[in-house]
Amino acid sequence: MVSKTEETQLSNLETQVDNGGGGAWEYLSLVRKLKVRRSDRVLKHGLSILNDPKKRSSLGPDEWTLYEQVAVAAMDCQSLDVAKDCIKVLQKKFPESKRVGRLEGMLLEAKGAWAEAEKAYSSLLEDNPLDQVIHKRRVAMSKAQGNVSVAIEWLNKYLEIFMADHDAWRELAEIYVSLQMYKQAAFCYEELILSQPMVPLFHLAYADLDMIGYWYWRQFLHPLPVYVSYSV
Fold first, then answer.
1. What value does the mean pLDDT of the chain take?
2. For residue 138, is it within any domain?
3. Domain boundary at 66, 95, 124, which?
4. Is residue 69 part of a domain?
5. Is 19 inside any structural domain?
6. Alpha helices by DSSP H, 179-222
7. Secretion signal: which residues (predicted)?
8. Closest CA to 46 of 19, 81, 96, 86
9. How many Å apart are CA 69 and CA 89, to the nearest integer?
10. Domain boundary at 80, 95, 110, which?
11. Whether 167 and 89 share a structural domain
12. What range does the domain containing 187 cover?
């Protein structure tokens, strides 16, 4: 979670860079550090560095990190040609890299080539079954296709391996709530409360589910009888 101080720092740096005050690399580094989405700005300011040989060479090994960052931002912005060019550069530099392989799968996703992307991810997982990023990409891909039941299946399989991933438990709970599967959603929040009992948000969400679940049970499954009065 981004703190208020970090949010202010990011906003100030963003304004500075947008107004031509320099600091593009510092801004891009902060975006990566805070793991926030600023795809349009990352694409714009990242390309301004990559397209300038002098600026690019000054990055040293971080040049490849920037290529990866810009590739992901380009896919978010549907600038697929830019993403493809960045990935090609990385493929040439790191021909056997699984990390680059992930980017290739993500590019297939962005193109809507779901079957090819799934094939690429399956191959990567054969080499490394504990690759969390790939597992999460499969979930995201299923949701993007509207295959909620498949997304639930992948999330449950993921959580069998990575039980401590609180974000995944919350994501699964939210999917269950959207499907009115309140009992299953409650189980997810129970897991979160057991692992992080001091987080009020989980207790509140669990209490809300209790109320919603009771309302649904009373409204649709066991409605109260309706008494009609004939008195005048």
1. 89
2. no
3. 95
4. yes
5. yes
6. 182-195, 200-216
7. none
8. 86
9. 13
10. 95
11. no
12. 163-218
pTM for this predicted structure: 0.81
- CA-to-CA distance for 147 and 132, rounded, in angstroms? 20
Q: Average pLDDT, stretch 146-151?
A: 94
| SS3 track for 80-93 | HHHHHHHHHHHHHH
92 contacts 115 by C-beta, under 8 angstroms = no
By the 8 A CB rule, do 143 and 174 touch?
A: no
Q: Hunting for tokens 């290529």 — which residue is that?
A: 67
Judge contact between 134 and 102, C-beta under 8 A.
yes
Q: Whose structure tokens read 């990023």?
A: 133
Nearest C-alpha neighbor of 118 from the set 82, 83, 147: 147
Q: Name which of 100, 141, 99, 94 is nearest 118 in CA terms.
A: 141
pLDDT in tens, 49-75: 999 999 999 999 999 999 999 999 999
Residue 210 belongs to a domain: yes
The whole-angstrom separation of Cα 166 and Cα 190 is 11
Give me the number of domains the chain comprises. Answer: 2
**Portion of the chain with pLDDT greater than 90, in percent:** 78
List C-alpha distances in Å: 7 to 2, 10, 21: 6, 5, 19
How long is the chain? 232
Assigned token pair, 222? 């066991």
**Confidence at 33, pLDDT banded by 50, 70, 90:** very high
- Region of 228 please: left (phi>0), alpha (psi -120 to 50) or beta: beta
